[in-house]
Request: fold
Amino acid sequence: MAGLRAGQGVLRRKPIEQIQEGAASEQLTRTLGLWQLTAIGVGGIIGAGIFALAGAVAHDRAGPAVVVSFLIAGVASAAAAFSYAEFAGLIPKAGSAYTYGYAVLGELAGWFIGWDLLLEYTAIVAVVAIGISGYFGFLLGQLGLDLPAWMLGAPGTGPGHQVDLFAMILCLFTAYLLTLGIRNAARFETVVVVLKVLVVLLVIAVGFFHIDTANYNPFFPFGVSGAFTGAATVFFAVFGYDAMSTAAEESKDAQRHMPKAIIYSLAISMVLYVLACLVLTGKNYTEIDPESGFSTAFKAVGLEGLANVIAIGAIIGILTVMFTFMLGVTRVWFSMSRDGLLPHWFAKTHPTRHVPVRVTWIVGVGSALIAGFLPIGEAAELTNIGILLAFVVVCVAVIVLRYKQPELPRTFRCPGMPFVPAIGVVFSLWLITFLDWQTWVRFGVWLVIGLIIYFAYSYRNSNLSKEQAARSGEPNG
Reply:
């Protein structure tokens, strides 16, 4: 009987009607409009993908077919985006994939996705901070500045490197921005995203006049498999909208605006990615600098001034990615704590700014330590697998809920049901197979730790567990 009760417990679901009502004492303030949400989404998607990953993948894995890599990743991401959009219009609360999984697949599934995203999003913030260093170093070199080697990278990343101090400062600065309140933080994000998009458009406009089409041949120098392998890597750059969806509870009209913002942000970003990759590989892919591809490419054709502008734009642009994913992890953590799966202490919001200041600073310090002392490769390995599994959960959940509760009012309906979400599941699982075994080991260890915490604390202390115990008249746990 105890085993039966435990099984029922881990499968208990948070009623969607209860989530929509939002009766919890700790609430976030609804201040974000459609274009602010879209800016946050674009801010999360465009950044490292254009300014860092595109050059690295073109140089090492795909050549000119990096365009195909982005298109493959974009198809998989779009299939999941439609699923996220349906949920965002249906459940306008913080938490994104965690909240959706909890409502449809049960508490244990929700816990695992939430626990997974805490690591993934924090690691992404750190990876992006590290990624800025290449452009920062390029810019300093152009200005003739020479900083001490000890502060320019994590141990083992270069002669004399001891800490990536600039990456650490960026993580802490991003945390500070988020503690100012979502209205002020979003205004800053919107301005910076506009500047970033203008820089990307400048790169595309000028770059088209320097394309040598002979460099597109051979188009698949690493074979078709190279483009597919590249897709697994650049997928890191096309899923910022999922972190943006964690801000649903801070949207003025989430049920109408969130689905639109998800679709708009992915569409805008994919167009810019494809055009930018065509410009980048208009230069021989073997000569592309993996760390600062566009800056070195324009410097090579005598446009040093533009190269400096791109370096500055890259630093600004990548900062917006940090903002979006740190926003995401803090809102997931806030939601899990408000639901009782983690201590309620973490869900405490600032009395006037109404943001979860405690978890924001914890994430800021944690991401700063990862960014400061881990090489970018080791930090990046912590990211993709968890996001892909979150996509699988959301795509499966949207199918399940559509058939179990078709009567629920949906402001956006995922098209091509169930085929489009199924494409998201298949693509995500397929991309996971390209990740190395060390990634699986690290991910497995993290999930085992999460499983221990769930059964030692979360299972007995969740709000649903307490409600269940109150109804049955039995002592909780």
Observations:
- Confidence is low (pLDDT under 50) at residues 1-7.
